[in-house]
Specification:
Layout (H helix, E strand, L loop, with lengths): L1 E2 L5 E2 L4 E2 L5 H14 L3 E3 L7 H11 L7 E6 L1 H6 L1 H15 L4 E6 L7 H13 L3 E7 L3 H8 L8 E5 L7 H9 L3 E5 L13 H10 L3 H11 L3 E2 L8 H5 L8 H8 L19
Parallel strand pairs: 3-4, 4-5, 5-6, 6-7, 7-8, 8-9, 9-10
Antiparallel strand pairs: 1-2
């Protein structure tokens, strides 16, 4: 568990649901929870909140046992304050829950962050959202937000993998008391992270998979992470809490950094969506 700046706790490893739709989303969420995960990540833009909510119900677990994250979509932010209000109510209804554990701004939409953040703060005061945060925010985006925010972001969810280590961004967030959550830990399949010879050699050394080496490198940095919800990898992903990498091996993985995004369009300064 990672403690947030509002004293809430978030499971360090969760499951992401990006690209999952329909029955696959429902089933994978249910199976993930039954396998032992307690942290589910979705978003309005994933168009699967209803299925995620049903998967949570189908798991048979108490809602309080699960940490649930969703995100306000960019197109909604551009429509203004009332649209954001409605979207959060819609998310609560689709997710079949009375509250959201963590609500994030999905991308730093220019000139729309302030209104969205202030609506999110209202939902915290109403008890419908426990924690709020951001995603894909660089340093100057955080500085702008903190100039007016009444509630400090609890989390910044950013792309982190061995080819995109984000070391300066991570340090700055931690200095601000904001936890960092790594999305795309394997490069989302668009770049071959786990196939790198160093990661393959470390996998042999530790008798783990290259994916486990990557996840261990992330959690050992004190970051939260949400690899995709794939049932054949559930046990493997959970197992990363049972071994450690040496300091030298941690550093050697970090030297793979190329500031390489899995998609060149995923730049917070110029994203097109």
């Amino acid at each position: 568990m990672i403690r947030l700046n509002n004293n809430s706790e978030i499971p360090q490893i969760g499951v992401g649901t990006w690209t999952l739709r329909g029955e696959t989303a429902r089933q994978n969420v249910c199976l993930a929870l039954q396998a032992g995960f307690r942290h589910i990540d979705t978003a309005q833009g994933y168009e699967n909140e209803a299925e995620v909510g049903q998967g949570i119900l189908d798991s048979g677990l108490a809602r309080q046992a699960i940490f649930l994250t969703t995100k306000v979509a960019t197109n909604i932010m551009r429509e203004g304050r009332e649209a954001v209000l409605k979207s959060i109510d819609d998310s609560l209804a689709k997710l079949k829950t009375d509250y959201i554990d963590l609500l994030l701004i999905h991308w730093p939409v220019k000139d729309c962050v302030r209104d969205t953040w202030q609506v999110m703060e209202e939902y915290v005061r109403q008890g419908k959202v426990k924690s709020i945060g951001v995603s894909n925010f660089n340093r100057h985006h955080l500085d702008d937000l903190l100039a007016y925010a009444d509630i400090r972001p609890a989390v910044n969810q950013i792309e982190v993998h061995p080819f995109m280590t984000q070391e300066e961004n991570v340090v700055y967030n931690h200095q601000l008391g904001i936890q960092v959550e790594a999305w795309g830990p394997f490069g989302q399949g668009n770049i071959d992270v786990v196939g790198h010879p160093l990661l393959q050699s470390l996998a042999a050394k530790y008798q783990k998979s290259a994916s486990q080496i990557v996840l261990r490198w992330i959690v050992q940095r004190g970051l939260i992470t949400i690899p995709r919800a794939k049932p054949n990898h559930f046990d493997e992903n959970l197992n990363v809490m049972k071994f450690s990498l040496s300091d030298d091996d941690m550093q050697s993985i970090s030297t793979l950094n190329q500031n390489l995004r899995s998609n060149v369009l995923n730049d917070p300064e110029s994203f097109p969506w």
